[in-house]
Amino acid sequence: MMKKTRSINAIKNGIEIELTINSLKAYVNGKEYTLAQSPVTDGNEVAYVNLRFISEALGYQVHWDKSTLTATITS
Q1: Cα dihedral 33/45/3/26 (nearest 10)
Q2: Most buried by CB count within 10 Å: which residue of 9, 34, 38, 68?
């Protein structure tokens, strides 16, 4: 019996990001990274991923304002 892999793949501006549901391993252009939090799913078709990791992998800057609980992403 083959085991299914539930993965998330994104490509933008030549940068390829590969994530797997419930795995702390991520790949950006083939280079392996360890995530602080694994991607998860709600059991339907919605996946939740680490916004900071995705944003920074694509070259954006992320600022977290703890006082207002606001994330700002800039290019």
Answers
A1: 0
A2: 38
How many domains is the chain partitioned into structurally? 1
- CATH code, domain with 67: 3.30.457
Q: What is the DSSP letter of 4?
A: P
Backbone angles phi, psi at 23, to 5 degrees: -125, 140
**Average pLDDT over the chain, rounded to an integer:** 92
In a domain, 1, yes or no: no
Work out the pLDDT band at 64, boundaries 50, 70, 90: very high
Residue 49 inside a domain? The answer is yes
In whole angstroms, what is the distance from residue 60 CA to residue 46 CA?
24
At residue 61 the predicted structure's pLDDT band, cuts being 50, 70 and 90, is very high
DSSP, collapsed to helix, strand or coil, labels residue 50 as coil
